[in-house]
Design a protein that fits this description.
The protein has six helices and seven strands, in the order E-H-E-H-E-H-E-E-E-E-H-H-H. The chain has 206 residues and is an alpha/beta fold.
């Protein structure tokens, strides 16, 4: 029997990635839009809180186990900003171009040694809306913020995120390369390794 899980996101890329990662576990990941689930209010003060909020919201409305992620960029010189506000860093009408421009503006005049940053990703899996012990998987990807954009791949802050170990900007990596080393790739790999007991408990309870 295939276990259906609702993804608290409408992002097709994430949907495909999760389905691929969990396929051998006999899991089908379905986007919340298929159930007309509206986006949850992200009122948490951390990536963990927001991921749980989104997963609980989707599970409550659909009655299915739910998976959600919350991710963003932390810049040390900005005391961890934009953090949980990464997607809307430049305001209500934020987009990638505006967010990147604002980030460059705020870091003007700082040398490479002062431009350290990291991407973080938190995944939350809840067996049901009142699950007292959600599965939390985290990934972190360290890098340096460039002084100008570089590369054509990826999205968001990828053109400004330099990865010293690879001597490359995130936006210069192929999707396959990025998924092997990125914050989300790490979190998904951990999810794949640790989710089996949670899935088994769902089947037992049913």
């Amino acid at each position: 029997m295939v276990q259906k899980i609702v993804l608290a996101s409408g992002n097709k890329g994430k949907l495909n990635e999760f389905n691929h990662a969990l396929s051998e576990l006999n899991v089908e990941v379905i986007p919340q839009a298929q159930f007309d689930v509206p986006d949850a209010d992200e009122t948490g003060q951390s990536f963990v809180e927001n991921a749980i909020l989104k997963a609980r919201h989707a599970a409550k409305i659909t009655g299915l186990p739910a998976l959600a992620d919350d991710s963003g960029l932390e810049v040390d010189a900005l005391n961890g900003a934009p953090g949980i506000y990464s997607a809307r860093f430049s305001g209500l009408d934020a987009n990638d171009a505006k967010n990147n421009a604002l980030l460059l503006e705020k870091l003007t005049g700082l040398g490479a040694e002062q431009r350290s940053a990291r991407f973080r990703c938190v995944l939350a899996f809840m067996r049901h809306a009142t699950d007292p012990t959600p599965l939390i998987c985290q990934g972190t990807w360290d890098g340096i913020i460039l002084e100008k954009e570089c590369g054509e791949q990826g999205f968001g802050y990828d053109p400004l995120f330099w990865v010293p170990e690879l001597n490359s900007a995130s936006a210069q990596l192929s999707p396959t390369q990025k998924n092997k080393v990125s914050h989300r790739g790490q979190a998904v790999a951990l999810l794949k390794k640790t989710i089996a007991p949670y899935l088994a408990s769902i089947k037992t309870s049913n």
